[in-house]
Fold this sequence. Notes:
Order of helices and strands: EEEEEEEEEEE
Shape: globular
Number of helices: 0
Number of strands: 11
Structural class: mainly beta
Helix content: under 10%
Amino acid sequence: QVGLVESGGGLVQSGESLRLSCEASGLYFSRYVMTWYRQGPGKGREMVASITSDGGSTNYADSMKGRFTISRDNAKNTVYLQIHSLKPEDTAVYSCNARGPPGSRYLEVWGLGTLVTVSS
């Protein structure tokens, strides 16, 4: 079965750190570009960070640079998002996305997300 399952969210205090995980199943994971998105209450979805299929290159939204780190472990079919110095405005549902190369059986897959709530 094809899918992405996020975990690691929860209620945290402002200033704390958190590591989110997204585990893939049913995909040739090492061929997929992985991206984290988030959607805060009353806001649109925004890209947080992406990482190439081999993990050799990462890209961050300008507003996310410095406190967010994306990484992946292809042996575990998992992509991670480390968030430091959490702020109340980081409260959001964080979702992961997988995009495959042309010709992939599954070109794009989304997870359901994990909720991060940051209290002040």
